[in-house]
Amino acid sequence: MRRLLPLLVGVLCAFGSAARAQAPTGGAGENVVQRGEYLARAADCAACHTPPNGQEFTGGYKFSLPFGTIYGPNITPDKATGIGDYTDDEFVAALQRGVGRGGKHLYPAMPYTNYTLMSREDVLAIKAYLFSLKPVHAESPPNALSFPYNQRWAMVFWNLLNNPDRRFQPDTSKSAAWNRGAYLAEALGHCQACHTPRNFMYGLDEGRAYGGAVVQDWLAYNITSDRDSGVGAWSDDDLAAYLSTGHATHHGSAAGPMAEAVDHSLRYLTQPDIRALVTYLRDVKPVHDEIPAAKPVQADALGARIFREACVSCHALDGSGRQTPYAALQGAHSARDPNGTNLLQILLRGGNIATGGPTAFMPAFGGEYTSEELAAVANWTIGHFGQRGGEVTRKSVEGVRPGGPGSAAQPTPGG
Description:
The chain folds into 3 domains: 9-162; 176-282, Cytochrome Bc1 Complex, Chain D, domain 2 (Orthogonal Bundle); 301-400, Cytochrome Bc1 Complex, Chain D, domain 2 (Orthogonal Bundle). It starts with 8 loop residues before the first helix and ends in a 15-residue tail after the last helix. A hairpin with a 3-residue loop joins strand 6 (247-248) and strand 7 (252-253). It has 18 helices and 9 strands. With 415 residues, the chain is mainly α. Helix content is 37%, strand content 6%. Mean pLDDT is 85; it is low at 1-28 and 408-415.
């Protein structure tokens, strides 16, 4: 997400009534299109409706799901291939109820189960912004879902169980910042869509809200208030830095879908909004996961050799990061996961993250090293920087190689 206009702090924190608590309203002189741009960025619309290296909002982004493939549609105001013919009521129905034009049910790859919490005023502000853009004629590839998931009519029953179709109601027992953060996280940012595991019906497992889940072969970490397996031990400044820049000292850097969220959305939020998100996350019910016991550094000669020849120039042997703080591995989540879920993705696909300044970039090594070599360097990295026993095998590397069995065929933006 690109060019946002800042909102005035006083209005951003205005929760004088239930209606205003729902709507992030702009500052003096800001028109509905400008406010809609901010809201569209906060809702991370570009991430799912922009193809890799393509024009924003033109569709074609690929979702590889357990039951098939879905492509994000064009949401520019083109009348033939976009949303140019949508009325206000139709646009509101799409975002709040997951029902498109002509009664066509949308799939929950679009997080309308979160957007349903948005006020009508905010939904229409987003529409005003999207309709201010230049129409682009761009057809998205057809979805390819297996039976019975390709039967859209069945979404009627799914929605009865999984979409509350209700608007955000502020908690009067909480602070204005908490309510603001709740609206940003639950309605706009749809953080649970990645960080909460899904049940067998692809609905959110509310019992483990924000407890971490695998999305597109990437692990979205536990971001509950648990001190051991969540972010409860992070300082407010660390959390704020990670959300707004994708990096926090001694906690690592964002990659994959999280880097994408920073690129398209979070880095454009005002600092009062970032701090409101921190306030809300601090209060999320802790979800505890058993963490493997620390183990001494693994004496893996192959992994150590590969790290020294390919990695040390950027990351440094002590993990401090030589060329950029984003290369630091000290305390990184990816180095503490014995399965190396995200570590393998970044090794195979590389990654980049833009934060308004120079882009932090890591090249892909999937074509340079064998699966056995990548498993070795992953396990050495986990042992050396995470002090845990790595469990990465040649088979697990091959399972997530681009185009390999079980892998997401398309890399995610930003990683």
